[in-house]
Amino acid sequence: MKGMKHIAIGTLLLLAVSGVSAQSLGDYARAVRKNKPEPSPATRHYDNDNLPADGTLSVVGPPPASTASATPATATANATPAPKTAADAAEHQKAADDWKQKIDQQKEKIDSLSHELDLEQREYRLRAAAFYGDAGTRLRNATQFDKDDAQYKSDVEGKQKAIDDAKQQLSELQEQAQKAGVVEKEKDSDNSSNNDKK
Questions:
Q1: How many domains does the structure of the chain reveal?
Q2: Using H for helix, E for strand and C for coil, what is the string for 39-59?
Q3: How far is CA 151 from each of CA 22, 120, 126, 148, 158, rounded to the nearest angstrom?
Q4: What pTM was estimated for this model as a whole?
Q5: Which of 80, 139, 145, 154 has the most CB atoms lying inside 10 A of its own CB?
Q6: Phi, psi (5° rounding) for residue 171?
Q7: CB 96 within 8 A of CB 182
C-alpha cells in the first residue's frame, strides 16, 4: 500500500515539473516569429501580417468575373462559336434540336428499362414472400420456385446489362453533341445521375 502511495506521489511530482517547464504553443510561435530574419526585397513573402492594406495587387490569370461580365461579346465568343448569318443560326438551332431529341429519346429508353427492371424486382419479392410464407407451398413447389428463381436472375442480369448499355450510349451521344457545339453535357449528366439515384 505504501509502495502505491510513493508511486502516485512520484508521478504527480513528474507531471508538475513537466507542466511548469512546458512552453505554450502561442509563446513558441511568437518567439519563432521574433527570431525569424526579414526576407530580402527580391523575394518578398506576403502573409496576413505584412499584406498591404492600401493600393492594389496585380493578379496573374484570367480577368475577374466582373471584368468578364463587362465585355459580354468576349464571354459569348469564348463559350460557343457564334453563327454568322441568320441561315447559320437556323441551321445551328436545328442541329441543337436534333441532338436534344436524340438525347431525350435515349433518356426515355433508360427510364423505361429502369422501370421494367424495378417492376420485375418488386414482383419477384412478392412471389418470394408468398412462397416462403407458406410452408405447404414450399414443400410442394420447391423445384418450380428454383427454376423461376434462376430465370428471374438471368432476366435481371440481362435487363441490367441493357440499362448499362443504354447509359453508355447516352454518354456517347452527349459527348458527340458537345463536340458538335451543343453544350448540354453538364446538365444532362446531372439529370442522368439523378435518375440513377431514383
A1: 1
A2: CCHHHCCCCCCCCCCCCCCCC
A3: 73, 12, 16, 5, 11
A4: 0.45
A5: 145
A6: -60, -40
A7: yes
